[in-house]
Design brief:
The chain has 14 helices and 18 strands. Helix 10 runs antiparallel to helix 11. The chain has an eight-stranded parallel beta sheet with strand order 8-7-6-3-2-1-10-9. It is α/β, with parallel strands linked by helices.
Length: about 425
């Protein structure tokens, strides 16, 4: 299905919201008041973490994980009614944004509607009890897609919600058969042709472990048969090693460069520094100049960009999925204005150019990205390790305008001096 994916998805910004934690009230109605601010960040899609009722059996925390769903076809009453949800969707659309729902099809809560009515649709232990494939996911039971009667129920559910929303983020997508996802995509296209599919794909170790246990687990290459965008988990661990000084930047560059040849030509990776399953970026990167450089790179490199609610405030605290943990609205470092200056990077038409190059420069501490089409070039320089350097660029000597700062930058002998601030030059 990636053959139909449009390159424009690489110019989209997805903003991730957990309704329970986003406001003090934790409701659909309360979220509506924040939509203009979310829109002002340049958001194209508001991704809502699961909005369905949460199971009680084996619940983690006092409120439970939104990923332990009790009923795929209902609304969590703590968030509001179905009418409240529809009103929120209309409000998001009125702001010129689209809505992405979180789909959790690998598992349900152990006391879910499906577990009660169709236990045969689940993996079972020898004694008939329901089980899951990943040990620490103790609050869920895993669905068994070898039971094809399950497929119709799940696809009917997807076509129902598609009448309201514009895309799906699919949780643990590799553990659900790719053939199912392709069938689901075809069915949803009959309801809404212009629909976005994002897969939470997985890293190599996770895939290898599940395959070792005898389960189906799709690689990123397989995922792109059914999805428009996949997660960046194939390189995320390496990125963490780089920022922690455990791996050289050039290894990360090599991994990203490999993505560009390993996947379909129109592939889109989700570029992020944090999400609801990972530590906050500012918790991992203390230096603000480095944090800004990595943010700028995430907007500029080839892919679709994700912001996790609160990232724009430079928050360090990683919010809980299992209890009430209201998003702080007092910024630790207010990155809002900076993120708004990055929007032109994301939208720039040269980011669709076929000629894309990524290198490390300086003493392996600066990332240089170039997009070239005919005689036009867009070159981004990102001092992600916080070091000053003289960086070679494929530009004729002369003065160029930095699209980020608006200042003039001189290229002398094919080199640019870079300090703590990222720059993007256009010729």
């Amino acid at each position: 299905m990636a053959t139909t994916t449009k390159l424009a998805v690489r110019q989209q910004l997805i903003y991730s919201v957990f309704v329970r934690n986003h406001t003090k009230a934790g409701t659909f109605q309360a979220l509506e008041a924040d939509l203009p601010r979310i829109k002002a960040l340049g958001t194209d899609y508001v991704w809502l973490l699961p909005i369905h009722p949460i199971g009680v059996a084996k619940r983690k925390g006092d409120l439970g994980s939104p990923y332990a769903i009790k009923d795929y076809r209902a609304i969590n009453p703590e968030y509001g009614s179905m009418a409240d949800f529809e009103h929120l969707v209309d409000a998001i659309h009125a702001q010129g944004m689209k809505v992405m729902l979180d789909v959790v099809y690998n598992h349900t809560s152990p006391d879910s509607v499906l577990a009660t009515s169709h236990p045969e649709w689940f993996y079972q232990n020898a004694d008939g009890s329901l089980r899951n494939k990943v040990g620490d996911w103790s609050d869920v039971a895993d669905l068994d897609y070898r039971q094809h009667d399950l497929w119709a129920y799940q696809i009917d559910t997807l076509t129902y919600w598609a009448q309201f929303v514009d895309g799906y983020r699919c949780d643990v997508a590799p553990l659900v058969p790719t053939t199912f996802w392709k069938a689901a995509r075809d069915a949803v296209a009959q309801v809404k042709p212009d629909f976005l599919w994002l897969a939470e794909s997985a890293g190599d170790d996770f895939i290898a472990e599940l395959r070792h246990q005898g389960y189906f687990a799709a690689s990123d290459g397989e995922i792109f048969n059914a999805f428009d965008i996949s997660y960046d988990y194939d390189v995320y661990g390496l990125w963490q090693d780089v920022i922690n000084g455990k791996a050289p930047l050039r290894d990360y560059v090599a991994a990203l460069t490999h993505q560009d040849v390993a996947f379909p030509a129109n592939y889109a990776k989700l570029r992020f520094l944090e999400n609801h399953d990972q530590e906050r970026a500012h918790g991992q990167i203390e230096n603000i100049a480095q944090l800004k450089a990595w943010l700028a790179f995430s907007y500029f490199e080839r892919g679709t960009t994700l912001l996790y609610a609160g990232e724009e405030f430079g928050l360090r605290h990683t919010p809980s999925l299992f209890t009430k943990d209201t998003l702080a609205t007092t910024p630790e470092v207010d990155l809002t204005t900076y993120l708004q200056t990055l929007q032109p990077l994301l939208r720039h038409p040269l980011r669709e150019a076929d000629d894309y190059q990524l290198t490390s420069a300086g003493h392996d501490d600066v990332l240089v990205v170039s997009y070239t089409r005919d005689d036009h070039a867009l070159i981004g320089i990102f001092p992600v390790m916080g070091q000053a350097a003289n960086v070679p660029v494929a530009l004729a000597d002369g003065d160029y305008r930095d699209l980020l700062s608006g200042q003039t930058v001189a290229v002398v002998d094919g080199m640019v001096g870079v300090h703590a601030t990222s720059m993007v030059l256009e010729s």
